[in-house]
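Can anyone check this?
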Amino acid sequence: MNDSIQLTPAQKQELANFHASLTRDETVYLDPSDPLHLGVIQIANEASGRTAAKYPYLFAVINSGAPYTGKQLDIATMVDAGETEEGKATATVWLTSEGDNLISGGTTFVIGPAQTEILAFGDNAGVSAGFLTNPTLSQNSVTVDGEPTIDILHLAYVMDPKGITRFTAYANSIVMTTGAGDQATIAAPIISHDEHENIEIAVGRTQGQPINDNADYIYVEPEDEGASPYLISPFVGQWVLNGTPDLTKLSAADLVTYVVVQSNDKKAEHLTRATEFTTDEKMLAAFSSERNILKWDFPFDGSGSGDKGYRDTNSIVYKPGSLTSEQRSYFFFSMTIQFEEGDPVTYNVCSKNSPETPSINCKTIDNLMYYWHCAAAGTQVTLEDGTEALIESLDTSSRVKTGIDGLESLAVYATVKGSHQSTSSQAGCQGIYQLQAENSKSVTASGCHIIFMEDMSCRMISDIAVDEVVMTDSGPSKVTQNDPIDHSGMFYGLVLGSKEERAREDFPVNMARFYAGGILTGDHHAMQYHCSKCYKDLDYMLPRIQQDMKTDYTSAAAAVRY
């Protein structure tokens, strides 16, 4: 990671020439055996401080010159570019990788029209993550000074656990606008519960099932639609512009939106608009204007507002996502607006993904959370009074036993559910495990489900070995079996703690727990926290990766910015 960029004029010209050779807004794979591709890969590494000493495996792959020949797994998109309120150049690129990812790194350049000037630069790294945000850094940016256009070039690599490495490039260009006085107000989606950290949206719920009634938005379907629910988001707001928009020139091609689901199983999903439900006609009909005020209305009309699901909602519907191990999700909407006078301008709305300052034509909102699910239907959960109930029967009136001193029980704040299919050949977060303890306690759960060990440390169920000791409702017990299994069915999870309980000083932040099948397990927030934390824990990760990739992983973990 390097906070200042020192490239020669020849290297800057090489980047500009390479940018000119690429198709705009398209992710392409690079071949290190191609001298042109090799040159820009080396420049990106130099600018980002990636050296052979820090990344020996990566440099060995580069030196081998072997191209990636698999299917397209990576999608780069520009979510912001332009100038900040201070007049400095900025750009942000998101890289979504649907493969099984171990290490990633990206470098974003903003190139001025003179082609030998880098107006802004930023790098970032990721470990065991399918989503990489790569903004330029404010301390590396310079004043735009009336430049008519700027070019954005993003270079990245993604390495999977077997060492297969993919090098990507992405290019875009924008016409600069002053944007002075532009203002955006977003009415939806927003956080409506002050205890939320993300905008919580319940999807895939069906009539007659317990529903997370604490979510900010709830969409209920008339019947279960299977493993992967359609994602839905309301989107309502307005933008005060410097000119009068001409919506007669607006087309569906000018409106681009998607949701990225970042998972704890080292993957991410890039989910575009489900055009069969949110049609081009619906997209255009949502926009209106009054003088210089641009408005759009994809309203929330789910539970409590008409109970509409994905088939008939006027919110935006996205393609189905598995949500099996969702860490968080990100919203993006881009609109290119023509004016009665002057050049068109692109305005973006996207989820927060870094602390860097966005451009004047970009509005950030909170991240989304659609929720994951963990324990299989039929799992018995121990209630406050010691009796048991099926996890699928619990709702926000339930209280569960925790075994925590002073908080022996906690309210069920939210219930989440989803369908999951897996085979015995699928391991890790993608698998479904059946863990049995020596004292006959047993739980069936998805691979990211958190189990409390004898010392009250947290461990994903997929990482627990036979003869290790887990905590149960009758005390510590040795694991006699823990294998991925063939399974298909509904899975459920819990979020624990009422608003009042969560405000207490002794509330077990990221450690709330309950007994599932008699085995002490973590709630949703515990799973979200500990699954993310373990990938940055070198003591946890290094024994689990190839020997020749350990140095690379250590260096990438140290280079993670956000």
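Reply from J.R.: I decoded it. The first helix runs from residue 9 to 21.
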